[in-house]
Amino acid sequence: MRNLPVRTARWSARHPWRAIAGWFVFVALCLGTGIAVGGNPATTEDFWVGEAGRAEQMATEGGLERKPTEHVLIRAESGRSLDHAAARAAARDITDRMERLPEVASVAAPVRSAHGEALRVPVVLKGAELDGKKNVGPLLEQTGKAAAAHPGVVIEETGSPAISKGVNEQRGEDLALSERISLPVTLVTLLVVFGSFVMAGVPLLLALTSIAAALGLSMTASHLLPDPGVGTNLILLIGLAVGVDYTLFYLKREREERARAEGRLSSAALVELAASTAGRAIVVSGLAVIVSTATLYLATDVIFSSLATGTILVVAMAVVSSLTALPALLVTIGRRTERRAARREARGATPRRRRQRPEHGRVFAALMRPAQRRPAATLVVSVLAMAALAVPALDMKLVDPGKDTFSRDIPAMQTYDRLTAAFPELKVEHEVVARAAAERAPEVRRALAGLGRRVSADPLFVRDAEPAVRTSPDGRTSVLVLSVPHFANSRPAKDSLRHLRDEHLPATVGRLAGVETAVSGDVARGTDYVEDERDKLPLVVGALLLLTFVMTVIAFRSVVIGLLGVVLNLLSAAAALGALVIVFQGTWAEGLLDFDSMGAIASRVPLFLFVILFGLSMDYQVFVVSRIKEARDTGMPARESVIAGIGASAKVVTSAAVVMVTVFAGFVALHLTEMKQMGFCLALAVLLDAVVIRLMVLPAALLLLGERAWWRTPRRPAPLPAAGVPVPVGGADGETARTARNVR
Predict the structure, then answer these.
(1) CATH code at 411-527
(2) What is the mean pLDDT of the chain?
(3) CA distance 154 to 401
(4) Which are the contacts of 563, defined by CB distance < 8 A and separation ≥ 6?
C-alpha cells in the first residue's frame, strides 16, 4: 500500500496518454453501465421502522396498504362566497376527467368542508405509495383544464404525490443554482492558488469526471442497496469538495518539488516525488473517509445506506483519479512546459523563473503565531471556545421532517395549506391496524369502532360520528383511521399518538387476547424513526471512534497521534453541531437564512454530519500530520518539525477549505431546510477545522507534547522515487541524465 501511489504514478508518467484515455473510458463505462441498468428506487417497505413499520407490514399483507391520494380543492376566490352550483358542476367535471385516466384507481364522492365554503374530491392513484409522484402529472394536467373550464370557482390540486413531485423539481433547480455558485467560486480560488487557467482547470476536470463515474456506479449499486433519491445530491456535494481537494494537495506538492528542483528533474521524476508524499496522504485520507462513512451502514437504514454508498463511491473515484489521471496530466503539461523552455533557451532567451512565494503569508503567520509563542494558553483558549460552541448541542431536539416543513414556494404546498385550513382533519391521520384469526373479524371491528368512539372524546382528536373500519378480504386484518386536527410536527399531534398508544388502544382492542395491534401514520413514522436512530447512535459512534483511531495509528505509527486525532475531530464536530442548534433550532436566523424553524433539527442530519465531519476532519489531519512527520523524518527536532509541517501545509489546507466551504455553503441557499442544515454545518465545521483546529489547537498540542507525541515511533527517511528514473540535468535535450535519487 505504501508504494502503490508511486508505482501507479510511475506507470502513468511513462504512459500518460494511455492513463488519461483509460480514465475517461472508465468514467464512460461507469456512467454508461449505470444508465443501461437504471436505478433501483427504494419502495415503501424499505422505510418500515419500529411499530409503525410493523403496522404497515400487517396492512400491506392484508391488502390495506396506504395508497397515493390526491385532493382536488374547489373553492371561491379570496373574499368571495362559494357558488355552490358552480362548485358541484366543477366536482362532476373533475370526477369524469379523473375516472378516464389510466393512472387513477378510484374517485370518491365530493366532501364539503365544515364551513361549507369548499369542496374536495379525493382521487386515489394506482400503484404503490411512492409511485404517486411519477404518475401524478396527468392528474395535474386535467385539474388545470378543469380550472380553465370553470372560471367561477378556483380549482387546484394537492396531495403527497403532487407535493413530492414539486419537491423533486425544486431540488433539481436548487442543485443547479448551487452549481452555478460553487463552480465559478471554486475556479477563482484555484486561479488564485495556481495563477494558471490550465492548472486551475485540472482539479475541476477530475472532480467532475469522478462525480460522473460515481453517479453511474451508484445506479448500479442501487440494485443491491435501493436508492431513496438522496444519493445524487450527496455525490455532487461531496464529490466536488473532495475531488478538488485531493487534486489540489497533489498539484501543490508537485509544484513545490518543481520549484525546489530548479529544472534539474524531469516531469516524471517530479510526479513520483509528489506521489511518494501527497499521493500516499491522499490514499490514507480517502481510506479514512471511506471507513468512517461505512459506519453509517450499521444504522441499517435505507437513507443512511444510500448516503454512505454515494460518499464512498465518489471519494473512491476521487482517489483513483488523483493516482492515475492526475500524474499523467501533470507529466503532459510539464513536458509541454519543458519544450517551451527548451525552445526559448535555443533562441538564447533568458529562462523564465517563477518567483517562489512563501508557503504562508502574513495572515497564516498571524494565525500560527499564538501557538508557536504561547502553546499552552492557545490550547486552553481555543479548546474552551470550541467547547462553549459545542454546549448547545446537548439541548438538540430531533424531528423527522414531513411535508409540513417543505417550502411554500411549491404550488402544491400552497394548496395544501388552503386544503388543511378548510379540512383540518386532513392534517394528520393515525392508522390503527389489528390482525387476528378470520373468524374473529366481527369482534375486532367492534373493538376498533369502540376505540374510534373513545378517542372522539379526546380533544386532541377529530370527533367522528361513526368511525369507518376497513377489513381485508380474508378477514384477518382490519384498519381504523383516526384524524387529528394538528400538524405532524406539533406537540398536540405527538401527544395524540402517545394517548392512542399508551391509553386508548390498550383499553379497547388491546384487551382482546390473540389480537396483534400496531399504530402507524405520519406522526408514528417520524416518532419511531427518531427512536430507531437514537438506539443505533451508540453503535455507529463507537465504531466510528474506534476505526478512525486504528487508521490513524496505522498511518502514523503513533498511539498519541491517534488519540489526539480522535479528540480533535470530536471537538470540531461537536462545535459545528452546537452552532447548528443555535442557528436552526431557534427563530432568530429565519430571515437571515430564509427558512422556517422546525424548533428542532432534522433527525437524519446529526448522525450523518457527525460521520461525514469525522471523515473530512481526517482529511486535514492526515495532510497536516504527514507534513510534520516528513519534517521529523529528515532529522528535525519535534518543535521545528511541527512549525515546518504546519507552515508547509497551511496555505494548501486553507485553500482546500475555501473550496469545501464554498461548495457546502451553496447548499444554504436551497429551499429544503434539511439541506440548509447540512450545508451550514458542513461549511462551518470545515472552516473551524482548517483554521482553529489545524492552525491553533493541533500545533499547540504537538508543541507541548514534543517527542512524546511520537512515542515509540521510529524516524523513517522520506520515500524517494525509485533509482533509475531518468532525470535531464543541464541541457534541455536531456542527453545528460542522472537518477532522481542522485539529484536529491
Answers:
(1) 3.30.70.100
(2) 87
(3) 30
(4) 549
